[in-house]
TrEMBL record, chains A, B:
InterPro entries: Flavin_Rdtase-like_dom, Split_barrel_FMN-bd. Gene3D superfamilies: Electron Transport, Fmn-binding Protein, Chain A. It comes from the Bacteria. This is Flavin reductase. Pfam families: Flavin_Reduct. The lineage of its organism: Bacteria, Pseudomonadati, Bacteroidota, Flavobacteriia, Flavobacteriales. Its cofactor is FMN. The keyword Flavoprotein applies. It comes from Flavobacterium cheonanense. Keywords: Flavoprotein, FMN. Residues 38-173 form the Flavin reductase like domain.
């Protein structure tokens, strides 16, 4: 039997969601998505002007080829990160750790055109192995990503950008023999809602599930 | 200045990614996505046969209307969850907590057609407020979602399903005045890679970022 400490629940229906005050709805709906990957997306324009932006909408699309997706809110206003990706074809995804999450959060401020978030936050850009876009030097897990496809989501005028991971940088002591990365050892953190940051404690790694077979711990 | 305990990094390039043994690549690429929301998606077919499946590819698309996305791997084999969503128009998303993550993981086993993952795992289905699809009774945060749109991602033959959240159930003591949900109080957990589960410790909630203004803690 399951141990179930049942919590008393509040029910919010469709009409009540629609009638919520705007900022409250934004916090609520963003919280419902659970814990999310959060990362810094680095780009530069064709003249080398750098841009850095925090994203919590980065998700896995497939392993072969290695594809990820990002959701962009409607334009206008112009989205510098998206424009740079479309103009140059490249971006970086940099995991956020406990030392830099406040700097990362600060990149969400609306700076004037021409101001680099690297400059104002003090995060350091890093170029390597011929990749066009800047990596975040303080990030322990860094991905170089090539633009592959843009899909317009007409229902709410957002845009999905799909990219292929072509460069991977990971701390050498965090990569396990079976390909799994120990993200806790790499100090990667997670977020919830719009503004809450969390570190993690591993509960377990579980064996591949099969019918009629007990799951075991891989640790 | 940033405190930066620099880790020695391994570089994996595009050719090396392509040459990785398949299972190792799957673990690696799934790990790169960072910590992810993980939830149980409940559906039933037109005859009321229930299905329950674990997903770690659930992401926020927008708050107004409240939209979420899910990525499905290529068919065939037939994806019961997707077929039920397309046939009935409804599904539930149920957050996973520490008491049920092993049961949740077990739903990823390939059961024969006609076998309900509710039955084999012992998780209890729950119907309420006229919603067609089954909720997971042991889940503390439950969402009723209406199908809105199907987008085929041709680049790797996956499918994105977009749904609108129309029913929300949350523990009454977890909802803050500003709309933020305290997911830790609701015992929601996160996952990494294909098989690793983690609980969280909140570092901070940060104020809305503005240029030339110091970020403060909201706690």
């Amino acid at each position: 039997m399951l141990k179930n400490l049942k919590m008393i629940k509040t029910f919010i229906n469709k009409n009540q969601i629609e009638e919520l005050e705007k900022q409250k709805r934004v916090h609520l709906i963003n919280s419902l998505g659970g814990f999310k990957s959060v990362s810094l997306v680095g780009t530069s324009d064709e003249n080398g002007n750098e841009n850095l932006a925090i994203f919590s909408s980065f998700f896995h699309i497939g392993a072969n080829p290695p594809l990820i997706g990002l959701i962009f809110r409607p334009s206008p206003p112009e989205r510098d990160t998206m424009r740079n990706i479309l103009d140059t074809g490249f971006f970086t995804v940099n995991h956020i750790n406990e030392s830099i999450y406040k700097h990362a959060h600060q990149t969400s401020a609306r700076y004037e055109k021409g101001i680099s978030e690297f400059h104002v936050t003090g995060l350091k850009s890093e170029y390597k192995n011929g990749f066009h876009a800047p990596f975040v030097a303080e990030s322990n897990i860094q991905l170089g990503v090539e633009f592959k496809e843009k899909i317009d989501i007409s229902i709410n005028s957002t845009t999905m950008i799909i990219g292929e991971i072509t460069q991977i940088y990971i701390p050498e002591n965090c990569l396990l023999d079976d390909g799994f990365i120990d993200l806790e050892k790499a100090n990667t953190i997670t977020c919830s809602g719009l503004d809450s940051y969390h570190k993690t404690i591993q509960l377990d790694r579980l064996s591949y599930a099969k019918p009629d077979k007990e799951i075991t711990s891989l640790l």
